[in-house]
Design goal:
alpha/beta; putative 2-phosphosulfolactate phosphatase; 4-stranded mixed beta sheet; binds D-malate
Length: 231
């Protein structure tokens, strides 16, 4: 389980990559696709996002956790309702999450996972029958506990689904232990995380509740070319 900073792209060759940014990019991606968006296109920069936008597309994202000037939406999953995004493409650029997805693009399959769709993501990853690399987006290249917690939950599901196939590196083992120690206090862990505290200061505590709904959505976004679509 590498963090973004140590994730050299060679690590992804011939693998299945699972990118995680619980607060909030991959939670938003999962929510938007579950709400009926046709696809989500992760863009690295604000300029890229604007260049990709075609008539009818929604352009969303954040910098410093705030909506980008001129964009229709920020990075709150609560904005991506069926009414807002149903039947439309979403172009999304965020500080860490969409960058993590770009970093994993050399993998054979790239999945966007969050606490919301962890079980479905683990199942889909196993179906690919390749080694799995879990990429925690973190925050500005630092580890973020909510992403580690989600990585540990994925490991928990993988072990339950196929115990004989799971061999963990040390970091993977540590994230599994982190999850097991906090399985009953997921929301509290998110609230007390650095990203969680930042979002609460900005008045976005509701987003944390949304992002903490473990295994509440059974869809799996995966990359097809430059677009995240549903399996
Ligand atoms: C990101 O991708 O950097 C995050 O999701 C940040 C945020 O939502 O505030």
């Amino acid at each position: 389980i590498p963090s973004v900073k140590e994730a050299g792209s060679a690590k992804f060759n011939h693998k299945t990559a699972i990118a995680i940014d619980v607060l909030r990019a991959t939670s938003t991606i999962v929510t938007a696709l579950a709400a009926g968006a046709v696809s989500v296109i992760p863009a690295e920069t604000v300029m890229d996002a604007r260049a990709l936008q075609r008539p009818g597309d929604i352009v969303g994202g954040e910098r410093f956790s705030r909506k980008i000037a001129g964009f229709e939406f920020g990075n709150s999953p609560r904005e991506y309702t069926e009414q807002a995004v149903g039947g439309r493409r979403v172009i999304l650029t965020t500080t860490n999450g969409t960058r993590a997805i770009h970093k994993s693009m050399r993998a054979d399959t790239v999945i966007a996972a969050s606490l919301l769709n962890a079980e479905a993501s683990a199942r889909f990853a196993l179906e690919q029958r390749r080694d799995i690399v879990i990429l925690c987006a973190g925050s500005h290249d630092d580890f973020a506990i909510e992403d580690g917690l989600c990585a540990g939950l994925l490991v928990e599901h993988l072990k339950q689904m196929c115990p004989s196939a799971v061999e963990l590196d040390d970091f993977g083992g540590a994230m599994h232990a982190l999850y097991r120690a906090n399985a009953d206090s997921v929301l509290d862990t998110l609230m007390n995380s650095q990203s969680g505290k930042r979002l609460q200061k900005l008045g976005s505590a509701e987003d944390i509740y949304e992002c903490a709904k473990v295994d509440s959505i059974s869809i799996v976004p995966y990359l097809n070319g430059d677009q995240l679509i549903l399996k």
